[in-house]
Amino acid sequence: MEYMTAKEAAAKWNISERRVQVLCEQTRIEGVARLGKSWAIPKDAQKPLDARKKGV
Q1: Is residue 53 part of a domain?
Q2: Domain range holding 37?
Q3: What is the pTM for the complete model shown?
């Protein structure tokens, strides 16, 4: 399985790197793993839905 960094995920999903880190900490990204101080996010992971928004 291939992984990307939080920085790469942030660019891919058009959100901040810090937001990706928070999503990882909250285990909202499926298959995420902690490697030392960095996060390994599967390349095929989907951006989690914004929990603040209700179904429209």
Answers
A1: no
A2: 3-42
A3: 0.86
DSSP string, the chain: --EE-HHHHHHHHTS-HHHHHHHHHTT-STT-EEETTEEEEETTPPPPP-TTSPP-
**Number of structural domains, the chain?**
1
Residue 32 lies in a domain: yes
Instruction: Please state the separation of Cα 10 from the chain's center in Å.
Output: 8
Q: Which amino acid is at 42?
A: P
**Span 23-44, pLDDT tens digits:** 999 999 999 999 999 999 999 9
Give the Cα separation of 36 and 44 in Å (integer): 22
